[in-house]
Amino acid sequence: MAKINEGLAEDIAGRGAPKSFPVLDASIMDYAEVHRAVRDDVKHNNIEFQFPSGFNKLSLFEECRAYTLLDDFDAMYDITMQMLVDKDLIINLKDDDGTAHEMCSIHVVDKFQNLRGDDFIDEYPVVITWLCEFVAEMLAKKYPLPGSVRARPAQATKSKKGPAKKKSQ
């Protein structure tokens, strides 16, 4: 590739060359699998969410809405924040030996609270995604559908008895 004359942009446009800007190419994907494996390991083994004051009780409408939208992040974020209004949330990271270290402690004032006010969440917003996923799984286990993977085996099986028969007179 020929080297471009550095003064060419100034000669043509009467302005200097643009300042450098970030360039993304396939090299950014070099460690994608390693990054994904580490992220999943932290998510499954090292993150812990504590709710010292518990959760708010949702209305029946909100619980039904949540149950039908378990895979929708926006809906689950809304439900999670409703469950945490006027409640405390503590996020811990556990070492390999199981020792928990408190990364942040938040008191949720309203469901529209900007959680980026905490340095840990600002640096690692994926933690809130995990929180919403954990709440979704908690709700799914609370109300499992018969035949679903989340349902207990006793709930997933149908009764072997047929419909009740009328007695003939």
Structural summary, described in words:
This protein is an alpha+beta fold. It has a domain at 45-142. It has helices at 8-13, 32-46, 60-68, 73-84, 119-123, 126-142, 153-156; strands at 47-50, 87-94, 100-108. It has a three-stranded antiparallel sheet. It is elongated, with a radius of gyration of 26 Å.
Comma- or semicolon-separated keywords:
169 residues, elongated, alpha+beta
Low-confidence stretches: 155-160
Query: What is the element string, with H for helices and E for strands?
Result: HHEHHEEHHH
Indicate the mean pLDDT. 83
Q: Number of helical segments?
A: 7
Short description:
This protein is an alpha+beta fold and 169 residues long. The protein is 40% helix and 12% strand.
Blueprint (SSEs and pairs):
Layout: H1 8-13, H2 32-46, E1 47-50, H3 60-68, H4 73-84, E2 87-94, E3 100-108, H5 119-123, H6 126-142, H7 153-156
Antiparallel strand pairs: 1-2, 2-3
Helix pairs in contact: 4-6
